[in-house]
Amino acid sequence: MNTIFSRCLALLLPALLAACASFSAVNPGASAREVETLMGAPANVWKNADGSEVWEYPRGPFGVETYMVTLGPDRAVREVHQVLSNEYISKLHVGMSRDEVRRLLGRPRDIGFSGLNDEEIWSWRYREARVRNMELYVQFDRPSGALKSISRFQIDTSDGKRQ
Q1: Distance between CA 56 and CA 66 in Å, rounded?
Q2: Most buried of the four, 69, 93, 125, 148, by CB within 10 Å?
Q3: pLDDT (tens digit per residue) in 30-54
Q4: pTM (2 d.p.)
Protein backbone atom coordinates (compact mmCIF):
# COMPACT_ATOMS: atom_id res chain seq x y z
CA MET A 1 0.00 0.00 0.00
CA ASN A 2 2.82 2.46 0.86
CA THR A 3 4.48 1.67 -2.47
CA ILE A 4 1.35 2.66 -4.41
CA PHE A 5 1.02 5.88 -2.39
CA SER A 6 4.69 6.70 -2.95
CA ARG A 7 4.41 6.17 -6.69
CA CYS A 8 1.27 8.31 -6.92
CA LEU A 9 2.93 11.06 -4.92
CA ALA A 10 6.01 10.93 -7.12
CA LEU A 11 3.83 11.36 -10.21
CA LEU A 12 1.67 14.14 -8.78
CA LEU A 13 4.30 16.18 -6.94
CA PRO A 14 5.81 17.90 -10.00
CA ALA A 15 2.33 18.92 -11.21
CA LEU A 16 1.38 20.25 -7.78
CA LEU A 17 4.61 22.21 -7.46
CA ALA A 18 4.13 23.77 -10.90
CA ALA A 19 0.56 24.73 -9.99
CA CYS A 20 1.75 26.42 -6.79
CA ALA A 21 4.77 28.14 -8.30
CA SER A 22 4.59 31.88 -8.79
CA PHE A 23 5.52 33.69 -11.96
CA SER A 24 7.21 36.34 -9.82
CA ALA A 25 10.03 33.78 -9.53
CA VAL A 26 10.58 33.90 -13.31
CA ASN A 27 13.03 36.72 -13.95
CA PRO A 28 14.44 38.16 -17.18
CA GLY A 29 17.55 36.23 -18.12
CA ALA A 30 16.32 32.90 -16.73
CA SER A 31 16.76 30.00 -19.14
CA ALA A 32 13.93 28.17 -20.89
CA ARG A 33 14.90 25.07 -18.91
CA GLU A 34 14.57 26.99 -15.61
CA VAL A 35 11.11 28.24 -16.62
CA GLU A 36 9.95 24.74 -17.57
CA THR A 37 11.37 23.26 -14.37
CA LEU A 38 9.64 25.89 -12.23
CA MET A 39 6.35 26.33 -14.12
CA GLY A 40 5.95 23.12 -16.10
CA ALA A 41 5.40 22.72 -19.81
CA PRO A 42 3.57 25.61 -21.51
CA ALA A 43 0.05 25.07 -22.82
CA ASN A 44 1.07 26.61 -26.13
CA VAL A 45 4.22 27.91 -27.81
CA TRP A 46 4.30 30.53 -30.56
CA LYS A 47 7.45 30.89 -32.64
CA ASN A 48 8.23 34.37 -33.94
CA ALA A 49 10.09 35.31 -37.13
CA ASP A 50 13.03 36.72 -35.13
CA GLY A 51 13.69 33.34 -33.47
CA SER A 52 11.99 34.30 -30.20
CA GLU A 53 9.13 32.30 -28.67
CA VAL A 54 6.12 33.10 -26.52
CA TRP A 55 5.07 30.43 -24.01
CA GLU A 56 1.47 30.49 -22.76
CA TYR A 57 0.56 29.49 -19.18
CA PRO A 58 -3.16 29.66 -18.32
CA ARG A 59 -3.65 29.58 -14.52
CA GLY A 60 -6.45 29.11 -12.06
CA PRO A 61 -9.46 26.82 -12.17
CA PHE A 62 -11.55 29.59 -13.71
CA GLY A 63 -8.80 30.91 -15.95
CA VAL A 64 -8.52 34.29 -14.22
CA GLU A 65 -4.81 34.56 -15.05
CA THR A 66 -2.81 33.70 -18.14
CA TYR A 67 0.91 34.37 -18.28
CA MET A 68 2.91 34.84 -21.46
CA VAL A 69 6.66 34.27 -21.17
CA THR A 70 8.73 35.68 -24.03
CA LEU A 71 12.03 33.91 -24.68
CA GLY A 72 14.66 35.41 -26.95
CA PRO A 73 16.49 33.47 -29.67
CA ASP A 74 19.09 32.68 -26.97
CA ARG A 75 16.31 30.83 -25.03
CA ALA A 76 16.52 33.34 -22.15
CA VAL A 77 13.48 35.08 -20.66
CA ARG A 78 12.90 38.58 -22.00
CA GLU A 79 9.51 39.33 -20.44
CA VAL A 80 6.72 37.83 -18.35
CA HIS A 81 3.20 39.28 -18.56
CA GLN A 82 -0.17 38.40 -17.01
CA VAL A 83 -2.39 39.08 -20.03
CA LEU A 84 -5.90 38.70 -18.61
CA SER A 85 -5.83 42.33 -17.52
CA ASN A 86 -7.29 45.65 -18.65
CA GLU A 87 -3.92 46.57 -20.21
CA TYR A 88 -4.12 43.67 -22.68
CA ILE A 89 -7.90 43.50 -23.07
CA SER A 90 -7.87 47.17 -24.13
CA LYS A 91 -5.69 46.15 -27.11
CA LEU A 92 -8.58 44.18 -28.62
CA HIS A 93 -10.21 45.84 -31.61
CA VAL A 94 -12.84 45.03 -34.20
CA GLY A 95 -11.32 43.31 -37.22
CA MET A 96 -8.68 41.27 -35.37
CA SER A 97 -8.32 37.63 -36.40
CA ARG A 98 -8.85 34.66 -34.10
CA ASP A 99 -5.07 34.04 -34.12
CA GLU A 100 -4.32 37.63 -33.10
CA VAL A 101 -6.78 37.44 -30.19
CA ARG A 102 -5.43 34.04 -29.11
CA ARG A 103 -1.85 35.30 -29.13
CA LEU A 104 -2.87 38.37 -27.13
CA LEU A 105 -5.01 36.73 -24.41
CA GLY A 106 -4.31 33.01 -24.60
CA ARG A 107 -6.71 30.11 -24.67
CA PRO A 108 -10.32 31.12 -24.00
CA ARG A 109 -12.21 29.51 -21.14
CA ASP A 110 -15.14 28.63 -23.40
CA ILE A 111 -15.94 28.72 -27.10
CA GLY A 112 -19.57 28.85 -28.20
CA PHE A 113 -21.53 29.45 -31.36
CA SER A 114 -24.57 31.49 -32.28
CA GLY A 115 -26.43 30.27 -35.34
CA LEU A 116 -28.65 33.34 -35.29
CA ASN A 117 -25.83 35.73 -36.24
CA ASP A 118 -23.35 33.10 -37.50
CA GLU A 119 -20.91 34.02 -34.72
CA GLU A 120 -18.24 32.24 -32.74
CA ILE A 121 -18.09 33.50 -29.14
CA TRP A 122 -15.03 33.17 -26.91
CA SER A 123 -15.03 33.95 -23.19
CA TRP A 124 -12.53 34.43 -20.40
CA ARG A 125 -12.85 35.14 -16.69
CA TYR A 126 -10.46 37.64 -15.18
CA ARG A 127 -10.05 39.91 -12.17
CA GLU A 128 -10.26 43.63 -12.58
CA ALA A 129 -8.20 45.61 -10.08
CA ARG A 130 -7.57 42.26 -8.34
CA VAL A 131 -11.01 42.35 -6.72
CA ARG A 132 -13.86 42.35 -9.26
CA ASN A 133 -14.62 39.10 -11.05
CA MET A 134 -15.29 39.83 -14.68
CA GLU A 135 -16.25 37.99 -17.85
CA LEU A 136 -14.97 38.97 -21.25
CA TYR A 137 -16.76 37.93 -24.44
CA VAL A 138 -15.43 38.39 -27.95
CA GLN A 139 -17.63 37.61 -30.92
CA PHE A 140 -16.20 36.64 -34.30
CA ASP A 141 -17.93 36.54 -37.65
CA ARG A 142 -17.69 32.80 -38.41
CA PRO A 143 -17.21 32.99 -42.18
CA SER A 144 -14.48 35.67 -42.13
CA GLY A 145 -13.02 34.98 -38.67
CA ALA A 146 -12.91 38.73 -37.93
CA LEU A 147 -13.62 40.07 -34.44
CA LYS A 148 -17.06 41.77 -34.44
CA SER A 149 -17.64 42.86 -30.85
CA ILE A 150 -16.15 42.91 -27.36
CA SER A 151 -18.20 42.82 -24.14
CA ARG A 152 -17.22 42.85 -20.47
CA PHE A 153 -19.46 42.06 -17.52
CA GLN A 154 -18.91 42.16 -13.77
CA ILE A 155 -20.12 38.82 -12.40
CA ASP A 156 -19.91 39.34 -8.65
CA THR A 157 -22.37 42.14 -8.04
CA SER A 158 -24.18 42.26 -4.71
CA ASP A 159 -27.58 41.63 -6.35
CA GLY A 160 -26.28 38.68 -8.38
CA LYS A 161 -26.97 40.36 -11.73
CA ARG A 162 -24.44 41.12 -14.42
CA GLN A 163 -23.58 44.75 -15.03
Answers
A1: 7
A2: 69
A3: 999 999 999 999 999 999 999 999 9
A4: 0.79
Phi/psi for 135 (5° steps) reads -120, 140
pLDDT, one tens digit per residue, over 57-81 is: 998 666 699 999 999 999 999 999 9
Q: How far is residue 112's CA from residue 122's CA, in Å, rounded to a whole number? A: 6
List own/partner pairs for 88-96 with CB under 8 A and 24 or more apart.
Answer: 89/126, 89/136, 89/150, 89/152, 92/138, 92/147, 92/150, 93/147, 94/146, 94/147, 94/148, 94/149, 94/150, 95/146, 95/147, 96/146, 96/147
Q: What whole-number distance in Å separates Cα of residue 76 and Cα of residue 92?
A: 28
Count CA atoms closer than 13 A to 46's CA, side-chain side. Answer: 17
Give per-residue pLDDT as tens, 115-130: 889 999 999 999 988 7
Rounded-to-integer distance, Cα 94 and Cα 114, Å: 18
Q: Which residues contact 6 (CB under 8 A, 6 or more apart)?
A: none
Please name every residue paired with 62 in a beta bridge, in sequence order, or none if there are none.
none
Report whether 47 contacts 56 (CB < 8 A). no
- Residues paired with 147 in a beta bridge: 140
* Torsion angle, alpha carbons of 65, 128, 103, 142, to 10: 110
